[in-house]
Write the structure tokens for this entry.
Amino acid sequence: MSRDTDVLVLGGAGVDTIVYVPQLPLPYADSYMIDSGIRTRAGQTGDFVAVALGSLGLRTHHMDMLGDDPEGDLVRALHRDKGIALTAVPQPAGTKRAVNLVSPDGRRLSLYDTSRGHPDDRLPEPTVRELATASRHAHVSITQPCAHALPALRDCGVSISTDLHDWDGENPYHEPFAHTADVVFLSATALTDPERTMRRIVERGRAEVVVATAGAEGAYLLADDELTRIPAVTPAAPVVDSNGAGDAFAAAFLYGRLSGEPPHRCALYGAVAGAHACTVPSTETDAIDRDALHARVAGFLPPEESGTRTV
């Protein structure tokens, strides 16, 4: 079977409005003067993952629902400019939108507009199957239309990853994603016991690897029944924005996995890419490229391990 696409990204397309605020939480006031400007750009979780995968040289195809509106045009232009194939399913409710408040230390508070969708929204199953059959891997965003695509992806025999973001380990909405994917990413932010949640994902689902990112504290990696801590990587430039760091981590981890690297090396790739993302302003949609990733990773490895594999 021909696999002409390395990674099929499902869901997570949209537009963010970025507002740099003097602090978070933002004290109540009648008004604030925003000298840095208020800017709208394409880029939500699926877009960030797709851009990051493309920057690392992986053949990437993104599929999601988009509106026939100026925001949808921004998403289409982003994919066109980055050379990423896009299948846009019409969304009468309009393109997904969010407002991100970003503090001077790079922390983010996101306000998601949930009105841009309907309970019966679906990604067309024949198209999902066609794209999945031509792909080596599928990365699935936790949006409602993607939940209904999970059985078709599994039927096609493609490996699957997902990002549960700030799941608390209890909300049942996330469970179909957590229990269907072979690789599961999530944030440790809302977890009182990350190891317990990670092991439950493995016990109840199909996951071979679970990664819980913990920001400046690094990440937890569960692979081959062993939990290890992955140290954080110091960014090579000042931290300006944490937006997209988790998406960058996931994309670089998948790049390593599809290259045949062991989980610990994949996690190092992710840590380096995530650190780089923190140095990129939220108003930009950019990612580390393959050469820069390998050059940075090589600095953490002994000489005999600094060679690279090709995807």
About this structure: The chain has a mean pLDDT of 92. The first helix runs from residue 45 to 55.
